[in-house]
Amino acid sequence: MPFDPGVIVSLGVAEWLYLRALRILHRRGVEVPAGQIVCWHIAMACWVIGLLSPLDPLGDDVLSAHMAQHLLIADIAAPFVLAGVRNPVLGFYLPRPALVTLARTHWLRRTFHFLHQPLVAGPLWVLTVYTWHLSLLFEGAERHPVVHALQHVSFIAAGVLLWWPVLEPKRRRMPGALWKIPYIFGTRLSTMFLAMGFLFARHPIYGEVYGTADRHGLTWRADQQTAGGLMMVLDILIMVGSLCWLFWRAAQDDVRAEERERAAAAAATSP
Q1: pLDDT tier at 123 (50, 70, 90 boundaries)?
Q2: Which three-class secondary structure state does DSSP give residue 49?
Q3: Which of 8, 33, 64, 249 is deepest in the core (most CB within 10 A)?
């Protein structure tokens, strides 16, 4: 089992802040939905498995394990962590002094507002994924722990920015706006082309660092194709799942709007 004090402390602090926010809300008589709490802990489980389980050292020898790690900590964890910190938790997650400091740091707020706009966050995600999969940077991340940590942080940050306009965690209820479907499809289709590169390449893409998978019973080709297959399957699942979820959410929004209109009409006609 890998022992990384930085990761352990970071995850421990994140969990403590979340439980602290739940306690504050409970004292104020606000109950957070159980599903929201489950989403947060799914994200935490993804980070623990990706960064503190045997998957991490295995990723040094096996490309598909390294790919699985990235998919866990960024592609899967990011939407769940945003669903978990949705308001009212978001407003109480950080201590008040930190919130005041952030509120007064106008350039930081403007920068974040710019980065999580759909037309910025989507291309930024695609650029981050493709840039880190260039041979020079990907192999450099395997050789240098600091670069590897930067790779993980950038994947997580880009994933959070990507999903922010979809999940809108500042709202207590996520609107089911249908523009989010092509947004998600566009970003996932873009990364599917990268997955195809792994699937159909006729030579090892990262031969300088990944040539030892045979010690684990995999040829380089099987390892590389498994990595691409994992990426492609997850992209497809995210697209299908998002399509179903957003259509269902949009239908719910329409029903709620109709109910409000009927209630308003009834109130207007009542004596």
Answers
A1: very high
A2: helix
A3: 64
